[in-house]
């Protein structure tokens, strides 16, 4: 009995901790919306002073102002705005707008960034797509309403890479496509439009709306030990992730390249 009681108590504590974290995340993510709403309410109620003069006194007394006045209401609005700015600046300092990591680590950071926002459009430019399987799974469960476009390397080019079969890129690409279709079946509302590009890989990218991008170089090179074989090792490349205004130059570059490849006359991948 005592053991069950301890388990129930720990479960309750865990639930409270999770609830608190979700509340904290909601407030941090929507700080602008919350403070703007409070400002609008104060302005609306203060505006009624011209129709009903005692309104300002009642509002002020409710907020524990000793001498409520229009100036005190404006001071309150200004205080809310300053509070919002401090929270936003603290978040920007704590979470740098540009980071550089190896791609496997950067996928985890992308998930943390996406947990704080919604998304309307997500574009993914990949070689085989295997390195974003975890990210796609996260998107399917948490951002399924977004419009997804996925570009993968065409099989004809994939066969030319690592032709000595050290890496079977064609099978890896097929595995990604099959996995995406499985995610679509298991997560109603999640839909990914897939196309193939018929050029040598240059870089990989994850582009979210107009303010978040993760970009990494996908080098192709001739193996010095086997000069007839061309290899690609993008999964080992350094990845640059940018958020907000810092992301604008990278997004223009990545999205422009993505759109050119997307609009090439290749049929969409069949389901």
Summarize the model shown.
This protein has 271 residues and is α+β, with helices and mostly antiparallel strands. The protein has nine helices and nine strands.
Low-confidence stretches: 7-12
The CATH class of the largest domain turns out to be: Alpha Beta
The CATH topology assignment of the largest domain is: Endonuclease, Chain A
Q: If classified by CATH, what would the architecture of the largest domain be? A: 2-Layer Sandwich
Percent of residues in helical segments? 40-55%
Please tell me about this protein's structure:
It contains 9 helices and 9 strands. The chain is an alpha+beta fold. It folds into 2 domains: 2-94, no CATH class; 98-262, Endonuclease Chain A (Endonuclease, Chain A, 2-Layer Sandwich), CATH 3.30.870.10. Helix 2 packs antiparallel against helix 4 and helix 6 (133-142) runs parallel beside helix 8 (169-186). The N and C termini lie far apart (54 Å).
Short key terms for the protein model shown above:
Endonuclease, Chain A; alpha+beta; 2 domains; 9 helices; 271 residues
Give the topology.
Elements: H1 2-29, H2 31-47, H3 54-62, H4 70-94, E1 98-102, H5 103-114, E2 121-125, H6 133-142, E3 147-153, H7 155-158, H8 169-186, E4 192-197, E5 203-208, E6 212-217, E7 220-223, E8 226-232, E9 238-243, H9 248-262
Parallel strand pairs: 2-3, 3-4
Antiparallel strand pairs: 1-9, 2-5, 5-6, 6-9, 7-8
